[in-house]
Every structure is written in structure tokens, then in C-alpha cells.
Amino acid sequence: MSGGAVNRTQDWGRVEYTSVRELRGPLAVVDQVEGVGWDEFVLFTLDSGERRHGLVLEVDRGTAVVQVLQDTGGMDPARVRAAFTGTPLRVPVGTGWLGRVCNGRGEPLDGGPPVLGAATSAVGGNPVNPVRREPPAEPVLTGVSAIDALTTLVRGQKLPVFSAAGLPHLELAAQIAAQSTAGGQPFCVVFAAMGVTHADAAFVRDALEERSAAGELVLLLNTADDPVIERILTPRIALTVAEHLAFTVGRHVLVVMTDMTSYAEALREVSAARGEIPARRAYPGYLYSDLASLYERCGRIRGLPGSVTVLPVLTMPAGDITHPVPDLTGYITEGQVVLSRDLHARGVYPPVDALSSLSRLMRKGAGPGRTRDDHLDVAAQLLSALARARQVKELADLVGQAALGPADRGYLTFDEAFAHGLVDQGSAELRTLEQTLERAWRVLLTLPRSQLAMLPAEFLDAHESAREGG
């Protein structure tokens, strides 16, 4: 199956090999190559004239293993030619991406022309010198009360959403992408969907249509029937586009990536095809470093405008938070938003479990001078009261509500008010931070003042007076 011949093409001026030894799943093995490097971009030409693209995964003693982005279906090893371009895969970058809908490889799905840009960038990105990194600061307001009040997203942060099958994580991701703002500063969203159904892809397009029409959205859609290799490329293209929009154009960019579990499974499939020794649950041993190479591309850079904020969404198989994908993600990122089956069953949307969720950088983006002076105190008191309410619910399950004292019954009332008065909101409902915090105060004031010890007296006096005056 190996021809072992080479010939030189006119259009690319590069050596074109016909020595494709075998096709193995999404991989092509090319023999007798010279001067080929890792991560190099490859062009395959079929007998029909069709062109496919690939990336070099490894080179060893004249043999290159190439992952074919459009898969190897219909390719005949004896009749295909491979041309190595000498450079990594590059994509055009610039504002031409805004308002466009493309597939996972960046090819248009909206009927428009190919995306063009004045410059190109390698999709692998460049590592950022840690010395030049600025700490994340200032909030990205999502319009979702459960996140803005208790797990505030900060510009330059990486904050994942942990979900499970059957929970509305895609709806929440689309809502955040549609509503988020950066305090009136130039802002846009790059949304990368990986392994979604066609119905889900259509839902995302409809939900984000207004933001796309406003020229504030880049949408990359990799569906479940697209080549698995494309799934590995999709988040890298999204981050490459986002980096240019942030650090060159000067926008604050939110990158939403869903579902990272689909991405990890694609990585596992390619690893198996390469014959690599598997690690935990058959995922490759380099899963941690691969995820880090994506998540760590967010942040702020000293001397450059803009910021890149990353919101990865991942489903935990069987709801297992110790599964390798959420487990490793938790080591790399700065907190998590966890969705709850219990709240979902109670009809609460979004079903955010506040006690399991955390934004480690919240104090960098909330509080005096950033959101509102009382924000951090309100959040702390809400979480404290919610923890007590959970203990009371467990006690009530044992002894019955009739055996509870008045203070404990008050915490059960607080729990219902918290779920339905603050967390619960419509999937298209945008709440300002003022509306969110006022709702939080109404929920807190269902408790007697003696139970609100974490709130400064001046804040309590002001809101109690306002309630009495109302």
C-alpha cells in the first residue's frame, strides 16, 4: 500500500508524498518523509481532486503520523498525496469573525464567504510569560443571579460549569453568552460547541441570534456527526480568535466552550488510534497538560488591552465529580459552578448548587468600587444561612417539621425563598446586578435580624428602613 515515490508540485512548491502506508481510524501514516516537524499542517489530495487537511502528531525515523481533520473515510492510501506545508495550522484573525457562524474548523455555515483577516495566527497559541500576566480584576456580569451574586465571574478568570446528563447546562451556557457584559466596555463572546446534536446547534444559533446580529459573537459549531478530530481543533481556533480580539483589538472576550467532556473523549479516541498506553479510565496520560494548554490561554496581559475569560462547560458522567475530566479541570481552574439534580427536580432554573459552587477570584471582581459596597457581605450571609438551612432540612427529615423551633422553621422558609426568589429565573430573563442584590436582600430579610450577624449594621438599617417605607 506504500508507493514510496515523491514528486514536486507547482502550486505549493513543496514535496508531495505518495508514500501513505496505512489509514488507521482518523490517522494517516506517511513513510519516507524528510524535514517534517511536529504539529505541521498537511494537505491531502485525493484522486477526485478533493483536499483534506491534517496535523502531524509525531515523526519518528522518516515516518509521520498525521491526524486527518475531515477523517479518512473514502481515502485510498495508494491514491492519495500528502504535502507538508512546513508550518503549524494557522487561521485568519480579526474582526471579520464577529457575527459569523462556522463549523469546528472555521468554515462558514451561514452561507457567507470564508472568514478573512489581515493577519493569521497559529491555532496552538503562544505561552504567556507569567511575569507579564495581570491578575484578573473587574466583573463580567452574566445577568444570571445565582452567578452574579454568589460566584461572580471576573475578567481573565477560568470558571467551569460542572453539570450532568439531563441538566440544562447548554441553556445556561447560551444564556450567559447572550447576556454577559463588561460594564459598558467593548465586549464580545466566542462560543465553541463540541459534539452537540443538530437540534442543540439550532437552539444555540437561535438563542444567540441577537448577539450575532449585533456583531458581538463568534459561533463555532462542531456537531456529533462531524469528524472527531475536528472536535480537538474547535476550542483552539476559538481561543486563537479570542486572543486577537482581546489583546490586539482591545475587547473583553468571554469564551464559552461546551462540552469539554466531548473534547476529552475525542482526545481519548485519537490516543487509542495512536496505540498510546492509557491512563485513568482510558484517557491519555497527558489529559491534564492538554486541558491546561486550553484553560491557561485566558487572562490579562500587562501593557495590552482587553482580556480573555474562559467558561468551560462539562458534563460529569453519572454525575461523578471525581471523573478525570472534572477532577483535572478543578486543579487548573479558579472555582466551579455546580448544577444540582435536586434543584432541577424542584423546578428551579438555573439549578445552581450555591454551596458546592465557588469563584476563588470573586473578591477581585466584586465589592466596593467594582460592583456594590454590600455585595461581598450579602454573598457571605446568604451562603452562611443556606448552610444552616441545609442542616435544618436534614434535621427535619429525621424528627419532622413539627419538632423544630421557630428559628429553625424560619430557615426552611429562607431556603424556599432563596431557591424561588433569587436563584430561579427565566432562561431569557436578564437581571441587572441591582435587581439581583435587591432580591438577595428580600430573601435575607425573611430571617430575623439576630440571624444576620455577618451583615454590617448600616446595611441592615438601610434595607429594613426601605422595606418598612415600602
Throw out a few tags for this protein:
disordered N terminus; eight-stranded antiparallel beta sheet; about 25% strand; about 475 residues; 14 helices; alpha/beta; eight-stranded mixed beta sheet; about 35% helix
What does this structure look like?
The protein is of the alpha/beta class and 470 residues long. The protein is 34% helix and 23% strand. The protein is built from 14 helices and 22 strands. The strands form 5 sheets. An 8-stranded antiparallel β-sheet has the order 1-2-8-5-6-7-4-3, with no helix packed on it. Strands 10-17-16-18-20-15-21-22 form an 8-stranded mixed β-sheet, with helices on both faces. A hairpin with a 2-residue loop joins strand 6 and strand 7 (63-68). Helix 5 (228-247) packs across helix 6 (260-273), helix 7 crosses helix 8 (324-332) and helix 11 crosses helix 13. The model is unreliable at 1-13 (pLDDT under 50).
Biggest sheet strand order reads 1-2-8-5-6-7-4-3
Q: Helical segment tally?
A: 14
Instruction: Please estimate the helix content.
Output: 25-40%
Average pLDDT works out at 91
Low-confidence parts, pLDDT < 50 over ≥5 residues?
Answer: 1-13
Q: What's the main sheet like? A: 8 strands, antiparallel
Alpha carbon gyration radius: 25 Å
Straight-line N-to-C gap: 83 Å
Q: What is the molecular shape? A: elongated
> Can you count the beta strands?
22
Helix vs. strand class: alpha/beta
Beta-strand percentage?
Answer: 15-25%
